[in-house]
UniProtKB/TrEMBL annotation:
Pfam families named among the record's database cross-references: YlxR (PF04296)
Protein name: YlxR domain-containing protein
Organism whose genome encodes this protein: Paenibacillus polysaccharolyticus
Domain YlxR per the UniProt entry, residue ranges: 9-82
Amino acid sequence: MKPKKVPLRKCVACQEMMPKKQLIRIVKTPEDEVLIDLTGKKSGRGAYLCGKESCFKLALKNRALDRALKSKVSPEIYEQLAADFVAVEDEFIAAQEREEDE
Ligand SMILES: [Zn+2]
């Protein structure tokens, strides 16, 4: 078996390099909206976070997303992301588990 090349991305919170699939993409759209991009296909500047609430909290604390997206992420957006993050975390983990079963 040939080892497959896995694209790696860095989590903006813990700075760990991780396979792209294990990260959640946060994107700043050309309309300056900051969103969670589960498909990884939205256009705009992206930043990656591990699919862990702890990393989200760390990013919130040290404003890692602001720096990664080179834009001020307002507290309202962080709040929205926090709610979304909890909501997507289960879905994200479930999707990964499905993939491991294959
Ligand atoms: Zn992380």
